Amino acid sequence: MHVWKVTSNNKYYRNLWPELLGGNYVAIGWDAIRDFRQYENDEIRLLAALQREYNVENGTGSVAQIRSFRDQMQQGDVVVSTEGFRRVNGVGIIASDYIGEETADNPRLRSEFRNIREVVWKWARNDRATPPIRPVEIDVNPRFGFWTVTSLGVDIVRVDGRLETIGDDNYRARFQRILELTGLDLSDLVR
To answer: In this structure, what DSSP letter does residue 14 have?
Structure first.
């Protein structure tokens, strides 16, 4: 199982977290591109569409993020939903393949952020709970903040019957800290 970060709240995603939590999904934008599957196996056309629709000089980072969300993220992978650089809003398990804007069962109610993946939340910020469950604060880290969708470079594996994390030591430690702060254990993240 791989661990991913998807940013759910920043200047572009204002007030989206309650819908993500209530709808049990993560969502990303680039809505002018519509359904990402139309560019499967054609990244040059996807890059041209991003440059045309969003007036970006170099959209290769956006192409990589779309490809990660559409193709590389798998059911059973773990997702950490963040708000900008410092806050973790939710930790869950990816429960669906990519669902695009033109998919009949896409539950997005808004006119924005229609590219989704369903999630089973294992821990989530909930301002309406009694008492409220507040976001977890973490140290600023570039991999957590700059891209909407990014791999944390961490995998959860079973070794001699035990669950362990493997990957970059810095990000493994950061992910372990998130688990500690949320009260989750690796076994909570295995389906």
So the answer is: T
- Whole-number pLDDT of residue 9: 61
Tell which residue, 104, 107, 125, has the closest CA to residue 117. Answer: 107
| Closest-CA residue to 6 (of 111, 127, 103, 121) | 121
Question: What are the pLDDT digits (tens) for 41-75?
Answer: 788 888 888 888 887 777 788 888 889 999 999 99
Asked if 69 contacts 28 with a C-beta cutoff of 8 angstroms, the reply is yes
Please write the tens of the pLDDT for every residue from 104-162.
777 775 667 888 899 999 999 888 787 888 888 876 455 556 788 888 889 999 999 99
Three-state DSSP state, 85? coil
Distance between CA atoms of residues 179 and 85, nearest Å: 17
Contact predicate 186/163, CB 8 Å: yes
Distance CA 114, CA 67 (A): 16
Scanning the structure block, which residue is given the tokens 């192409």?
A: 63
Q: Write out the two tokens for 165.
A: 């994390």
Question: Which structure tokens are listed for 133?
Answer: 């469950």
Region 84-88: mean pLDDT is 79
* Strand positions, DSSP E, the chain: 2-9, 25-28, 78-83, 87-94, 115-124, 136-137, 149-159, 162-167
